[in-house]
Design brief:
The chain is 65% helix and 0% strand. By secondary structure, it is mainly alpha-helical. It has one domain.
Length: 81
């Protein structure tokens, strides 16, 4: 799913989020929390990030169940590949 979303965003000229951050690294998780807060004005916790990364459902299903925007789900999954 990530690869397809990356291709769509790239073809539209939008930002592609691609990194290999470690879910167990405090600095990586803190970086992601700060990024989401800055770009999406949404507060997140490490537990939220862990839940997003571990779930294998479609982005829109995860977003709906967590009351978050689909773009946030993509960013988190894209950064913690």
């Amino acid at each position: 799913m990530l690869y397809a979303k990356d291709l769509i965003l790239k073809s539209k000229g939008e930002t592609v989020y691609r990194a290999y951050l470690d879910i167990y690294d405090v600095d990586d998780v803190s970086f992601m929390i700060d990024l989401i807060c800055k770009e999406n004005a949404t507060d997140m916790y490490a537990v939220d990030i862990e839940q997003i990364v571990s779930r294998q459902e479609a982005f829109n299903e995860i977003a709906k169940s967590m009351a978050l925007d689909v773009d946030i789900i993509y960013k988190v999954k894209g950064m913690f590949r």
